[in-house]
Amino acid sequence: MRKITYRDALREALREEMKRDPTVFLLGEDIGKYWGGAFKVTEGLAEEFGEERVRDTPISENAIIGTAVGAAITGTCPVAEIMFGDLTALAMDQIANQAAKIRYMFGAQAKCPMVIRTPFGAGVNIASHHSQSLEAWFMHTPGLHVAVPSTPYDAKGLLKTAIRGNNPTVFCEHKLLYPIEGEVPEQEYTIPFGKADTKREGEDVTIVATLYMVHKALNAAKQLEKENAINAEIIDPRTLTPLDTQAIIKSVKKTGRLIIVTEDCKTAGVSAEIAAIAAEHAVDYLDAPIKRVAEPDTPIPFSPPLEQYVIPNEKTIIKALKEVLQTW
Amino acid sequence: MTTSLTKEKLIEMFGKMIEIRFFEEKVFELYAQNLVPGTIHLYLGEEAVAVGVCTALNKDDYITSTHRGHGHCIAKGADLNRTMAEILGKKTGYCKGKGGSMHIADFNIGMMGATAVVGAGLPIAVGAALSAKLRNTSQIVACFFGEGASNQGTFHESINMAATWCLPVIFVCENNLYAMGTRQSRVMAIENISDRAAAYGIPGVTVDGNDVIAVYKASQKAAGQARKGEGPTLIECKTYRLKGHSRVDPAKYRPKQEVEEWLKKDPIKRLKQHLIETKTLTEQEIQQIEKQAQTKIEEAVKFAMESPTPNPEEALEDIYA
């Protein structure tokens, strides 16, 4: 099968959906022909579809999302890009109070089919305002769907599903994933929301990981198998809302051990929710306490050694794995 | 008041204003009887704004509304029964009891809903206008907000965006002089919100918001420009709340003399006088219209009171489409 990058997979999804449905349009800062998006995801699309449908906006995040809401509830399907995930804070009223609630508070009169694409994640030394992982904010907001693709295949299939859906989706990308290559079929496919993917099968311990942490977990699992003959299973939820709780519970029941690896803050984070689900539904199957490998509740610092210290890595994942495996 | 309006249109406008007035008086009465859960923000005194603007719109045009939104709903053509039922938290209400007084919507008449976050409706209006443009319709959007909202970032972001993209929006600032208890002069160094239009390169006008004909004329002009692709207009309507901000707020922060001055400018009183002076309607005909409106309101109350409350477990429905 051909291999393409995560970035190209996203662009393919946008292009195909724009061709399929004339009401799909893109808006965001510098996404058009002069820049092609800060991470070049939308490069070439303005040339192909015109500036009406690939719309450069002023630097007005709240109005970008509000405009998307107004367009979504009146018969179009906007895909808004917020240049960095941290900047969703500027649009939080429109995301959390308007997009998320507009269907519910108006008694299902409206639907709000829109996508907010935004990159999260640290690792490129751009400090506290461009590096955080805030998926939990949106997971904590009823009315939103939250997608967290970790591979080019998932990115394309999930983005197409998000665009075709009838609800607002916060589509969380990760800036270190954009250049990563993976197999993506040429033929049409979509990936349903709420269906986790087993990125690696194993029997000894379950790792639930998201976004870039899936790749670090895969590296850690390989190393552990090689050095300790221990087989870790890696579950990638792919969407946090809806969350495939059954896949997580099933794996935990099989392995009896669970570690969760996410890049967001540990407290009240994605990992906390997944740990709670395992505790609620599979506590009798657990042979060891659940371990969370997550960001230690700090803003993201700038200097490379500081930044590396707070982001989970293969070493911290292996350490956690060994800890849960020692508790027989 | 001078007018080129047809007699029918004037009478229709008067009818709508009366409906809003009686509806709001009834809501206040029901509130006092403890029949309305939560809070209420009445449109009493501001009727000319909603009616003047909405009369200049087509049925398929859009409006966005605010926490003080009952008048916008009625002016755009909402059903009184379902509006009242929503305010009382009933299953038969527009939002099945999930929205209440501050969140009434009727998407069938382009009423995109009331948002209770001050200023949040502005970008949504811009989005609806952009959608109309992308879908090649001739729909336009009227966006209601108060002078308090004009200090929100969304005011700047949205008007700038609509102006840059030449979108069909009428930004209607209902300047009732007070944001809750905060008088405009305490939070703004300008007197006219419409002055701000210059910053976006769009027309800005201030009209007497208690003169329905003036509001209508300004709206009609703005609507015509919007429909022709000439972009947005900011219309500031100077008006005044007959009552306090919400519930039983006695509005002690407003000087007595000021209140008395504004009471003299009651939009309904003025329109009535105009209708009689121009021999558009007789006293008797006016009374007839008032009686009809009262009957409709009584029916709405009856409908709402007799409607069932939602089943509690319906709280778990309608989150996702």
Task: Lay out the secondary structure.
The complex is a heterodimer of chains A (about 325) and B (about 325).
Chain A: E1 3-5, H1 6-20, E2 24-28, H2 45-49, E3 54-56, H3 61-72, E4 77-81, H4 92-99, H5 102-105, E5 115-120, H6 135-139, E6 145-147, H7 152-164, E7 169-174, E8 181-183, E9 197-200, E10 205-209, H8 212-228, E11 232-236, E12 239-241, H9 245-255, E13 258-265, H10 270-282, E14 291-295, H11 304-310, H12 314-326
Parallel strand pairs in A: 2-3, 2-4, 4-5, 5-7, 6-7, 10-11, 10-13, 13-14
Antiparallel strand pairs in A: 1-8, 6-12, 9-11
Helix pairs in contact in A: 1-7, 3-4, 8-12, 9-10
Chain B: H1 7-32, H2 47-55, E1 62-65, H3 70-76, H4 80-87, E2 111-114, H5 121-134, E3 141-146, H6 153-164, E4 169-175, E5 178-179, E6 182-183, H7 184-187, E7 204-208, H8 212-227, E8 233-238, H9 256-264, H10 267-277, H11 283-306
Helix pairs in contact in B: 1-2, 1-3, 1-10, 1-11, 2-3, 2-8, 4-11, 5-6
The largest sheet of chain A has its strands arranged as: 3-2-4-5-7-6-12
What is the beta-strand fraction of chain B?
A: 5-15%
Low-confidence stretches of chain B: none
CATH superfamily of chain B: Thiamin diphosphate (ThDP)-binding fold, Pyr/PP domains
Order of SSEs of chain B: HHEHHEHEHEEEHEHEHHH
Spatial shape of chain A: globular
Strand order in space, largest sheet of chain B: 2-1-3-4-8-7
Order of helices and strands of chain A: EHEHEHEHHEHEHEEEEHEEHEHEHH
CATH topology of the largest domain in chain A: Rossmann fold
The first-to-last residue Cα distance of chain A is 42 Å
Q: CATH superfamily of the largest domain in chain A, called what?
A: Thiamin diphosphate (ThDP)-binding fold, Pyr/PP domains
What structural class should be given to the helix and strand makeup of chain B?
alpha/beta
Q: Which stretches of chain A of 5+ consecutive residues score pLDDT under 50?
A: none
Helicity of chain A, as a percent range:
25-40%
Q: Which chain pair shows the most residues in contact?
A: A-B, 44 and 45 residues
* Total individual domains of chain B: 1
Shape annotation of chain B: globular
Count of helical regions of chain A? 12
Q: What is the correct CATH architecture of the largest domain in chain A?
A: 3-Layer(aba) Sandwich
